[in-house]
Amino acid sequence: MAVTHYNRDLAVANILFGANFSFYVSLTGGGMDFRIVFLCQLLAGAAAFIPAAAVTRGFCRITARDAAVMAGVSLLIVYGWLYMLLWGASLTSPIDASTIATLGPAFTLVTAIAVHRRRVMWADIAGIILAIAGGAVLIFDRGAVFVRGSEGYGNLIVLGAVVATAVNTVLVKPQLARLGVRAVLGWCYLFGTLAALPLILRYATAGTAAALRSAPLGLRTELLYIMIFGTVLPIYLLYRGTGGLTSVHTALYRYIQPVVATALALARRQERIDHANIVAAAMIAAAIVFTMIGFSHAKRMHQQKKL
To answer: Residue 221: phi, psi to the nearest 5?
Structure first.
């Protein structure tokens, strides 16, 4: 029953994350600076998680090692994930961005192998190669990747956010098991807010407040959605699910995101599916199969060692 609970948490979290891509595009396309959206997400998380963590036992049991890990994890969350994902999504399409987000399991697997020194099998290698190749199809199909402001450049930034998320998922799991979800999120957002303080002070002006007040009601509604249902709720569910399941298992749920993002993008006429999307999706789908084969084999080997 507990495992079902964790699986449900991850499914709901990834449905909500998938919807974010469409809203990111409409917010930035509507003239809202992606940095303001980022800060609203960050401050919403800080307001929700830090007070909730302060009243837990795990919040006070933090060790120097835990603090060092969570300081690094907070940078991966704040700048590696939230900031880079918004930046990249503001330059590319929601379909491309969400498809690249499904590369997470491959990079999670690489990180898990490096950190935990798990034996590598042929399915792992095949899955990683196919996933990266699928991402490359999208990135290089959009022209000169390193031209700042191009769609290919945006896809490359999204890929950086995916790598940061994958590393974060693996590194934070021991702290989640020992301290609990609320304590970990509280410390991560505390460290993250401190790291983003220069940006917060830069945008904490009357001009920013006036821009938010004068934004169309539709954009403000989408921003509110992003803050609550696109940040606070799915991040809590993600970390709760991550604490109860393996890192690779957690990463596999990211394949829900492009389904939701594509459906919304097509319904809102933000993008259309082209040949690159189809080829990339096929290669990443094949990568899923090999990743799951490798994951199942590793799970069986682990169970046999325990017997």
So the answer is: -65, -40
Q: Which residues have a Cβ under 8 Å from the Cβ of 251 and sit 6 or more positions away?
A: 104, 105, 108, 109, 166, 169
Structure tokens at 179: 């301290």
Radius of gyration of the chain (CA): 19
Question: How far is the C-alpha of 228 from the C-alpha of 178, rounded, in Å?
Answer: 27
Give the Cα separation of 66 and 178 in Å (integer).
Answer: 10
For 162, phi then psi, to 5°, come to: -65, -45
Token pair listed for 142: 């959009």
Q: Encode pLDDT of 8-47 as tens digits.
A: 888 888 889 888 888 888 888 888 888 999 999 999 999 9
Instruction: Label residues 62-91 b or e (16+ Cβ within 10 Å = b).
Output: beeebeebbbbbbbbbbbbbbbbbbbbbbb
Distances (CA, A) of 189 to 44, 70, 149, 295, 300: 10, 9, 29, 31, 36
The answer to pTM > 0.85 is: no
Residue range 193-207, pLDDT digits in tens: 999 999 898 888 878
Cα–Cα dist 10/4, whole Å: 10
Closest CA to 262 of 238, 281, 239: 281
Residue 3 vs residues 13, 202, 296, 297: alpha-carbon distances, Å:
15, 44, 16, 19
Round to whole Å and give the CA distance between 31 and 146: 24
- Report whether 33 contacts 224 (CB < 8 A): no
Domain ranges of the chain: 2-306
Closest CA to 54 of 174, 177, 189: 189
